[in-house]
Amino acid sequence: MLCLRYSLPLIPNRFQSFDTTRNTKSCVVVCAAKGPRPRYPRVWKTKRRIGTISKSAKLVDCIKGLSNVKEEVYGALDSFVAWELEFPLIAVKKALRALEEQQEWKRIIQVTKWMLSKGQGRTMGTYFTLMNALAEDGRLDEVEELWTKLFSQYLEGTPRMMFDKMISIYYKRDMHDQIFEIFADMEELGLRPSVSIVNMVGNVFQRLGMMDKYEKLKKKYPPPKWIYRYIKGKRVRVRAKNDNEAGDVNSVASGDEEASHDDELDGINDVASGDEEASHDNKLDGINDVASEDEEAFHDESEVGIRIDANEVGVETNLSSNDFSVEANSSLSECQNQDRLHWEHNQPSGVSNSS
């Protein structure tokens, strides 16, 4: 016989756990202010310019009402960039430009030094802005310290605008020995001085009565006939103005970027005036061409009219001559008929019949 038995049910242990399918996702730390943040370091830099104008305006408003205490200004700047994933370099540069337009030299010095302390924006443009602000604020010793550090570190890589700035700073303060030292450094490095540098050094030679050195300087560095300006990012060739050297020196010795901005505007005006003159000349040429074309057309029409008149006169003379010949022929035929009738009337009948 078959015996059917049921197996006992398997009762699992309460403390035994079963493996189920789990959703294995990477753990992400969520920040309450800015949302999820990645756990890996960022190895790229973004160049987004959207929103940088408003951000720079907020930065200016954030630090403008503060005192000149270093800790207070640095604390406000740190809190401003606290939640940024990367340093807002473009916004800070625009804020520096806005402060420079407002001539807030102390704020420019504070923001620039704070940015350099963060290891950001270490470019020659930043150092130039800092040097200009220090000079305008009257901190000549810090300017000389910064210049010595940059010149000793970069040497041949120092741009010509830095030499120009230092010579203009010393030129405003009548520090002739320092001007000669920087100019000698330029000649040793083989760096050709600009027109403003040559004019300032030449004026110093004239003040000191060194006319022989002045003549040698003008002979070695004659004024160029053409100069190049950067207008809207394009290199434009503009004719140089060498008549008002004193005015150029005073404009360069002002020590800010308004001189370069004025030069760019002069270049734009020169180009615009050249374009206006060219357009005016083109208009005059067009008017002359139209006038010459009108004269030629009028001359052609007059010739055609003369020819038409002559043809009409010829036709009229031909018609008149033809009419005269027809009338003469008709008169001759009438005379011949009358003579024939008269002759037939006078002859006898037999003759006439025979004839």
Write the layout of secondary structure elements.
Layout: E1 29-31, E2 35-37, H1 52-64, H2 70-80, H3 89-101, H4 105-117, H5 124-136, H6 140-154, H7 160-172, H8 176-189, H9 195-207, H10 211-220, E3 226-231, E4 234-239, H11 245-252, H12 258-346, H13 349-354
Antiparallel strand pairs: 1-2, 3-4
Helix pairs in contact: 1-3, 3-4, 4-5, 5-6, 5-7, 7-8, 7-9, 9-10, 9-11
**First CA to last CA: what distance?**
180 Å
Let me know the number of strands.
4
Q: Describe the sheet with the most strands.
A: 2 strands, antiparallel
Arrangement of strands in the largest sheet:
1-2
Mean pLDDT: 74
Radius of gyration: 50 Å
The SSE string, one letter per element, is EEHHHHHHHHHHEEHHH
Considering DSSP H and I runs of 4 or more, what fraction of the residues is helical?
55-70%
Number of helices: 13
Structural class: mainly alpha
Uncertain regions spanning at least 5 consecutive residues: 15-26, 244-265, 267-274, 301-317, 349-355
Beta-strand level of the residues, as a percent range?
A: 5-15%
Shape: elongated
What key attributes describe this structure?
elongated; mainly alpha; 355 residues; 65% helix
Structure description:
- Residues 255-276 have a biased composition (Acidic residues).
- InterPro entries: EMB1417-like, PPR_rpt, TPR-like_helical_dom_sf.
- PPR repeats lie at residues 159-193.
- This is Pentacotripeptide-repeat region of PRORP domain-containing protein.
- Keywords: Repeat.
- The protein has 355 residues and is mainly alpha-helical.
- The chain has a domain at 51-141.
- It is built from 13 helices and four strands.
- It has helices at 52-64, 70-80, 89-101, 105-117, 124-136, 140-154, 160-172, 176-189, 195-207, 211-220, 245-252, 258-346, 349-354, and strands spanning 29-31, 35-37, 226-231, 234-239.
- A two-stranded antiparallel sheet has the order 1-2.
- Strand 3 (226-231) and strand 4 form a beta hairpin.
- Helix 7 (160-172) runs antiparallel to helix 8 (176-189).
- The protein is elongated, with a radius of gyration of 50 Å.
- Mean pLDDT is 74; it is low at 15-26, 244-265, 267-274, 301-317 and 349-355.
